Amino acid sequence: MGFPLPTTHKALKVPEVMEALGLSRFKVYDLIRTKQLPSFTIGRSRRIPADALQTFMQDKLREAA
């Protein structure tokens, strides 16, 4: 039971990014830590801009080509 990448959200939660990329929580935080995936925090909540996730995926597709 997955959920699709929300189109109405501007900033995604880590579980949403995990589902969209099919990655573990550890790997998503590793991408954030190594600055491959931009993010920001509000209080204790980490958010990833939806456009940053799109850019990340497009970059990975170009690398694979």
UniProtKB/TrEMBL annotation:
Residues 12-59 form the Helix-turn-helix domain. InterPro entries: HTH_17 (IPR041657), SinI_DNA-bd (IPR010093). NCBIfam families: excise (TIGR01764). This is Helix-turn-helix domain protein. It comes from Streptomyces cyanogenus. The lineage of its organism: Bacteria, Bacillati, Actinomycetota, Actinomycetes, Kitasatosporales.
